[in-house]
Amino acid sequence: xxxxxxxxxxxxxxxxxxxxxxxxxxxxxxxxxxxxxxxxxxxxxxxxxxxxxxxxxxxxxxxxxxxxxxxxxxxxxxxxxxxxxxxxxxxxxxxxxxx
Length: 99
Hints:
The protein has a domain at 20-83: 434 Repressor (Amino-terminal Domain). It is built from five helices and no strands. Helices cover 60% and strands 0% of the residues.
């Protein structure tokens, strides 16, 4: 009988691969941005189509973005912010020093 690898050990092994941590962080950022746009759209009681029209993009692009499947450019984020009557704020934040 083959030894089953636990999810934790598989994840740890995959995260040790070159570039994995960066890809994981990019996916996390995409998810967080998408969730925030989704929340703002719902607060405005808009459909994805309404937001798409207001932001000058397609409904499918809004859907992909809200699902965390795409990271938009800064100009697209600016159009979404304007459409949602919010301001875009992009900043660099110091990370805690290790050790």
